[in-house]
């Protein structure tokens, strides 16, 4: 799962191999870029994406009997030239990140990053928090549409803040803070075969700069890449609820 935070020592940099005249390998160490520099670039890229794309909001407003509540994003052009852009529908929150949060060698403190999120369908259940364990479906992609991780066919549990006892790393900041903007579903119906259905789950998007995700890591296919997550939040449980497992 790509959403987990990759914990790296502060002294590890991106290494680029080159060869000397004697053909013996050498390493040129390139330090990570500054958070403050990348944040501005990423935000401009995200804003351009939001201004030029829309989602199937009309289907969400008037869902047919077979609508699957999946978000479909397309470009505003041609027959879709009159669609309302995502830029007019998303909400935002500023999240401060310091270089120490990402294990970076620079000494930047509280660099502001803008997190964007869209609630396509509000859940009818409880409000999630960044400290919850959540059961959800998700798809992660870069803004060019390249998918790097997906669990829409098989929902999964995430302990958003991480758990030492469960040996799970915390989720990346943007995902953790973004999920906390959504409400979970309501009534849970067990199907008798180990599966269950959740009524009225929360559906939407989370769009984040790389400083709230993997920053210089190329684990998503590209370093310093802004990311987009489509989520369907089924269940959100507080720490106090964990002994009363709804789904095992």
Give your account of this protein's structure.
The protein is mainly β. The chain has a single domain (14-241), classed as Roll (Chitinase A, domain 3), CATH 3.10.50. The protein is built from 3 helices and 13 strands; from the N terminus they run ββαβαββββββαββββ. The chain has helices at 35-51, 57-61, 173-179, and strands spanning 14-19, 25-30, 53-55, 73-75, 91-97, 111-121, 133-142, 147-150, 156-159, 188-190, 196-198, 202-208, 227-237. Strands 5, 6, 7, 8, 9, 12 and 13 form a 7-stranded antiparallel sheet that branches. It has a two-stranded antiparallel ribbon with strand order 1-2. It starts with 13 loop residues before the first strand and ends in an 11-residue tail after the last strand.
Observed structural traits:
12% helix, 3 helices, 248 residues, 7-stranded antiparallel β-sheet
Brief account:
This protein has 248 residues and is mainly beta. Helices cover 12% and strands 31% of the residues.
């Amino acid at each position: 799962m790509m959403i987990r935070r990759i914990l790296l020592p502060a002294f590890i940099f991106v290494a680029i191999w080159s060869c000397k005249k004697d053909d013996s390998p050498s390493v040129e160490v390139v330090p990570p870029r500054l958070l403050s520099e990348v944040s501005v670039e990423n935000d401009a890229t995200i804003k351009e994406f939001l201004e030029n794309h829309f989602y199937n909001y009309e289907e969400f407003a008037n869902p047919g009997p077979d609508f699957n509540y999946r978000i479909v994003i397309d470009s505003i052009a041609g027959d879709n030239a009159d669609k309302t852009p995502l830029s007019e529908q998303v909400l935002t929150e500023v999240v401060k990140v310091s270089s120490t949060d990402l294990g970076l060698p620079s000494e930047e403190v509280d660099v502001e990053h803008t997190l964007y999120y869209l609630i396509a369908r509000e859940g009818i259940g409880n409000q999630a928090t960044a400290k919850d364990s959540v059961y959800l479906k998700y798809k992660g992609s870069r803004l060019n549409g390249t998918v790097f991780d997906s669990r829409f066919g098989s929902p999964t549990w995430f302990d958003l803040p991480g758990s030492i006892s469960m040996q799970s790393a915390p989720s990346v900041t943007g995902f953790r803070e973004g999920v906390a903007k959504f409400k979970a579903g309501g009534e849970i119906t067990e199907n008798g075969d180990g599966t269950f259905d959740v009524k009225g789950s929360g559906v939407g998007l989370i769009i984040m700069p790389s400083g709230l995700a993997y920053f210089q890591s190329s684990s998503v296919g590209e370093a310093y890449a802004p990311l987009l997550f489509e989520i369907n939040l089924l269940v959100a449980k507080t720490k106090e609820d964990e002994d009363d497992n709804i789904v095992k």
